[in-house]
Structure formats: structure tokens, C-alpha cells
Design goal:
Elements: H1 4-19, H2 28-40, E1 45-50, E2 54-59, E3 66-72, H3 99-115, E4 121-127, H4 135-141, H5 143-146, E5 152-159, E6 167-169, E7 172-175, E8 177-186, E9 190-191, H6 202-214, E10 225-234, E11 241-242, E12 245-254, H7 257-277, E13 281-290, E14 293-295, H8 297-309, E15 314-316, H9 328-331, E16 335-342, H10 362-375
Parallel strand pairs: 3-4, 3-5, 5-16, 6-15
Antiparallel strand pairs: 1-2, 2-4, 6-16, 7-14, 8-12, 8-13, 9-11, 10-12
């Protein structure tokens, strides 16, 4: 489904995208580059600035079944250690999640649809700001999304630790919900020689961390739920001053959105009780919020059929992934599925500074997608 000549072109494009890696919300050059290549594939329509720098290409008539394929534009704030000639030109920014490869897979599909007509409407969505959990929300809320809102939506993610080209399937929850909890505590400063004259957050910080961590052993959740302390900052670097403020960052995650809400409420209650007990003012902020990614079971069954009919190796997963993906925003409102594709058992893990997307998994990903599209009506 992808010729050797076209595959070499797609690999070259992927390396160009890798080189110009941009952070969430800043994907200006990446979006422009995607538009440039989409124009070569002559879609019926190109729609720009969806939910930020998002861009979509439309092939076929809107009177037919509408199927959306989604990839991500953004990179990560990680300094690349690779020394190949297409390494990122931007310091501390690099494609360490494989979004450059995901975009190349969609461009390979665009190349196919430029010459092969299907009795459906195909929308290729290149979505911004996946890494911070904001892109899918902004894209789906954009008025421009309404005209391309599909009947089905599909996505995929490369997965180190699994053999190359192994298709990974999971019905219902595919990836966890998660959110960053930012706890700010405010007391009263005083001289370090007389701490009794101030109000310190130290005891509250200790109790909050201990009690929130105990939630990990709770049997009150229906499924997996986890609180992970990420960062703590107490007071100032001044030996003459007793601390009067503190900040705690905790990541909460769960396989079920209902468990996530319970985990948030319990964590909030712990903060409130300890702040009141220690006479502290407090505030809570939430950031990097991801809903769980829920796969439609019938679509996963069809993907299994695709694998069997096309001699594609696959594995049905018993447990969801603990990491999060904002694709869940789409699957809350549209029948959808995300599948995994193995990127090598010995590959560096995602978000590792020496990770690089393996181009040789592109053909299997494209084959899987195109075969599934044929089954959707």
C-alpha cells in the first residue's frame, strides 16, 4: 500500500519534521511544513488553525461515511543527545514521543488517498498541543471542527518495549486519565531563631504527602489509581528565615474517569483538613488534565479482523497503559479507537533523550489503518 519510492519520501519528510521540533502551542513551522506536503497530495480541502495550529486535510465527499485519522504536531522540552544529521535545531526541544513519525504515517495515508478514491470521506487531522493535554479539547471545541466532525475517529501510538510492527489492541480503556495537582500553602514568615512566632507549612506538607500516598493502598477505587509526588518546594534559601510558604506538585492518574474524580476529591479533602489544622491559607490548581482514552469494542474487534486478514501480528492487552493521551477527548464524543504499534523491544523508551522514531514501522501502520477504513460504514 506504500511503494518503496513513496516510503523513501515519507522517511525524508519525517526527518525534516524531527529537525524542526516545536513545543505544544508553538507548532508554527511544523504546521506550515505539513500544509506544504498536504498541498502536494491535492486534497479536496485544507482547513488551518484548528484549536491553535492544527491543520486538517479532507479527501472525498461529505455525503459519505466520515472517518478521521489523527496525529500530533508537538514535541517535548527535552534536550536531544542523538548526533544524526536531522537532530532537532531547537535547544531543549525534540520529538521524543514519536509525533514526527505519527505525522509521517498520516502523510503516507494522504499520499495513498491522493491517487486511490474510496467511497468515504477521509479527514486527516494534525492536532496541536497533545503533550500538555490541551490540544484535543481546543480542537474539538473549535467551530471549524464541526464541519469535519466524523462518524469514526482513529489514532495510534508507537510503543517501545514491543517487537516492531506488533499491533497492540485494547477494548474499553486504552490509556489512563491523569491530572497535575498544584497545591500552594501560605503561612506567616518569621525569624528562624523564633519559629514559634510564625506559621510554617512544614508539618502540613509532611502530612499531606503521607496521607495522599496512602491513597495508593486504598481499596476504595474500582480499578487502578495512583498519586505520584513530583516536586516540593518549602520556604526560601535563607537560613535566617523560617519557612512561610510551600508548593507541592502531585500527578494523579486512574484507569477510570470515575476513580479519577474520587482521587481528586480525596486529595483535595486532605489538603483542606491539614491547611485548616495548621492555620494556613491554601489554593489548588489543576494542570495537564487528560481524560481516559476509551476504545470502542466493536472497532477493536474490526482491528483484530484486519490483523488476521492481512497477516499482521497483534496482541490483545489485558491492562490499559498508565500513561495518558488527550485522544480520550475525542472518544468521549465520537466512536473511536487508538491502537499501539511496537517500535522495538530494545528501543529507548518514549521521552528518553536518545529515542528516535523507527521509520520501518510506517508501512505496517499504514496497512492497518487503510484496511480498517475499508471495513467502516
Amino acid at each position: 500500500m506504500i511503494s518503496k519510492t513513496n516510503f523513501e519520501k515519507i522517511k525524508s519528510i519525517r526527518k525534516e519534521l524531527h529537525k524542526i521540533a516545536e513545543l505544544s502551542g508553538d507548532e508554527i513551522k511544523t504546521s506550515q511544513k505539513i500544509k506544504h506536503y498536504l498541498e502536494e497530495f491535492n486534497p479536496d480541502k485544507i482547513i488551518e488553525n484548528i484549536g491553535g495550529y492544527g491543520i486538517a486535510a479532507v479527501f472525498g465527499s461529505s455525503n459519505k461515511t466520515k472517518i478521521m485519522l489523527r496525529a500530533e504536531l508537538d514535541a517535548l522540552p527535552i534536550q536531544e543527545v542523538n548526533e544524526f544529521n536531522y537532530k532537532s535545531i531547537h535547544p531543549n526541544v525534540s520529538h521524543k514521543c514519536g509525533h514526527d513519525g505519527h505525522m509521517s504515517i498520516l502523510l503516507a495515508c494522504a499520499d495513498y488517498f491522493s491517487s486511490q478514491k474510496v467511497d468515504k470521506q477521509i479527514i486527516l487531522l494534525f492536532q496541536p498541543s497533545e503533550e500538555n493535554g490541551k490540544g484535543a479539547k481546543r480542537a474539538s471545541a473549535d467551530p471549524k471542527f464541526e464541519e469535519i466532525k466524523p462518524d469514526f475517529i482513529l489514532s495510534f501510538h508507537n510503543l517501545p518495549g514491543y517487537q516492531k510492527n506488533l499491533i497492540l489492541l485494547k477494548e474499553n480503556t486504552f490509556a489512563a486519565a491523569s491530572v497535575g495537582m498544584i497545591i500552594k500553602l501560605q503561612g506567616v514568615s518569621t525569624h528562624a531563631a523564633h519559629p514559634e512566632n510564625g506559621i510554617s507549612p512544614v508539618i502540613a506538607v509532611t502530612k499531606i504527602l503521607q496521607q495522599i500516598l496512602k491513597l495508593n493502598d486504598s481499596n476504595e477505587f474500582e480499578d487502578f489509581a495512583l498519586a505520584t509526588p513530583i516536586h516540593t518546594n518549602i520556604g526560601e534559601r535563607a537560613f535566617g528565615t523560617a519557612p512561610h510558604k510551600a508548593e507541592i506538585l502531585i500527578t494523579l492518574r486512574a484507569f477510570k474517569d470515575s476513580d479519577m474524580e474520587k482521587l481528586k476529591k480525596k486529595s483535595l479533602k486532605i489538603v483542606e483538613e491539614n491547611a485548616v489544622s495548621e492555620k494556613l491559607n491554601y489554593s489548588i490548581e489543576w494542570d495537564d488534565e487528560f481524560q481516559s482514552t476509551i476504545n470502542d469494542p466493536l472497532l477493536i474487534d474490526k482491528l483484530e479482523e484486519v490483523c488476521n486478514e492481512n497477516a499482521l501480528e497483534y496482541q490483545r492487552l489485558l491492562v490499559p497503559f498508565r500513561w495518558s493521551e488527550d485522544f480520550g477527548v475525542f472518544t468521549q464524543q465520537i466512536k473511536g479507537a487508538m491502537f499501539g504499534i511496537g517500535s522495538g523491544e530494545n528501543s529507548p523508551q518514549l521521552h528518553n533523550p536518545d529515542y528516535d522514531f523507527p521509520d520501518d514501522i510506517v508501512p505496517a501502520a499504514v496497512k492497518t489503518i487503510l484496511a480498517l477504513i475499508q471495513k467502516l460504514n
